[in-house]
Amino acid sequence: xxxxxxxxxxxxxxxxxxxxxxxxxxxxxxxxxxxxxxxxxxxxxxxxxxxxxxxxxxxxxxxxxxxxxxxxxxxxxxxxxxxxxxxxxxxxxxxxxxxxxxxxxxxxxxxxxxxxxxxxxxxxxxxxxxxxxxxxxxxxxx
Length: 142
Fold this sequence. Notes:
By secondary structure, the protein is of the alpha/beta class. It has a domain at 64-141: CATH 3.100.10.10. Helix content is 16%, strand content 14%. It is built from 3 helices and 6 strands, in the order αββαβββαβ. The strands form 2 sheets. It has a 3-stranded parallel sheet. It is elongated and about 105 Å long. The mean pLDDT is 87.
């Protein structure tokens, strides 16, 4: 082993090369002339311009105004027995609402018609007129 044959374990880092000559020479790795050889060359891909022009559905999942309810009138609840619990599952069994995408829909009970049976409503939105009619008939709303 001689001093002139020793090698470092970690060689020195080389400085980053820039486009001003140096080992690159002539065009400094930028090819020929033209737009791509100049400073500030940042052309956008054409696909990006196409994507930017497509209309976006911004926030359609998070906007509470877009909540869709399946409407049920109070008069349709007369098919339930006295003391029955009315919820989306029981309305589905009575074929008053349908599943959408394998999920029970959100239900809103509206005030059209008359109710004569006593029912307990849960997990449903209820309008003010429907609430008055259900409570007048002796039912409850949770």
